[in-house]
């Protein structure tokens, strides 16, 4: 059984051989993830305590952080001489691939929403996070689409 797929005349390995990034790059990424999670946890506590939190700023900061992490990962993968397709897998080739990934995304979103709620009701701790005005809603939805 072959562990490669040919796409546009280029052979792409399904299971990369060896590492896709250096060990120091991986450790730095893990430190950044934990550090970012800690900063967002404490900053969300401050926003939660304010009467009129600036949700748009919070959403935009989160999107910028996610794009920065994406760029950092891509830089490390390319620096190590690998292709991003080796990390993410081959492109969708049919509707089954699309619906499989959509199903995974919906399941993940459902688990995430369920784990942050209590008996179907969003807890007060997370209620501040959700948009209340049009601009907040547009930013929130736009950010959710880019993250998917």
Please give a structural write-up:
The relative contact order is 0.12. The longest helix is centred in the first third of the chain and has 27 residues, at 23-49. A hairpin with a 2-residue loop joins β3 and β4 (121-122). This protein has a domain at 4-91 and 133-147. The chain starts with a strand and ends with a helix. The protein has helices at residues 23-49, 55-79, 84-88, 95-115, 124-127, 134-147; strands spanning 4-7, 10-13, 117-118, 121-122. The model has no long low-confidence stretch (mean pLDDT 76). By secondary structure, the protein is mainly α. The chain contains 6 helices and 4 strands; from the N terminus they run ββααααββαα. The strands form 2 sheets. It has a two-stranded antiparallel sheet. The protein has a two-stranded antiparallel sheet with strand order 3-4.
Task: Please give a quick description of this structure.
It is built from 6 helices and 4 strands, in the order ββααααββαα. Helix content is 65%, strand content 8%. Strands 1-2 form a two-stranded antiparallel sheet.
Keywords:
148 residues, 6 helices, 4 strands, mainly alpha
SSE arrangement:
Blueprint: E1 4-7, E2 10-13, H1 23-49, H2 55-79, H3 84-88, H4 95-115, E3 117-118, E4 121-122, H5 124-127, H6 134-147
Antiparallel strand pairs: 1-2, 3-4
Q: Largest sheet at a glance?
A: 2 strands, antiparallel
Residue share in β-strands? 5-15%
**Rg value:** 19 Å
**N-to-C span:** 31 Å
DSSP strand count: 4
Note the run of SSEs as H and E.
EEHHHHEEHH
Strand arrangement, major sheet: 1-2
Q: Could you list the spans in which at least 5 consecutive residues all have pLDDT below 50? A: none
The number of helical segments is 6
Write down the overall mean pLDDT: 76
Overall 3D form: extended
- Class by SSE composition: mainly alpha
Give me the oligomer status. single chain
User: Helix fraction?
Assistant: 55-70%
């Amino acid at each position: 059984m072959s562990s490669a797929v040919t796409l546009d005349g280029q052979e792409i390995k399904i299971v990369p051989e060896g590492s896709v990034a250096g060990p120091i790059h991986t450790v730095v990424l893990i430190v950044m993830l934990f550090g970012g999670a800690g900063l967002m946890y404490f900053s969300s506590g401050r926003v939660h305590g304010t009467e009129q939190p600036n949700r748009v700023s919070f959403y935009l900061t989160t999107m910028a952080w996610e794009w920065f992490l994406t760029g950092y990962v891509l830089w490390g993968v390319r620096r190590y001489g690998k292709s991003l397709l080796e990390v993410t897998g081959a492109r969708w080739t049919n509707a089954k691939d699309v619906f499989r990934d959509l199903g995974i995304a919906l399941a993940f979103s459902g688990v995430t929403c369920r784990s942050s709620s209590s008996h179907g009701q969003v807890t007060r701790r997370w209620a501040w996070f959700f948009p209340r005005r049009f601009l907040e809603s547009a930013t929130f939805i736009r950010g959710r689409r880019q993250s998917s």
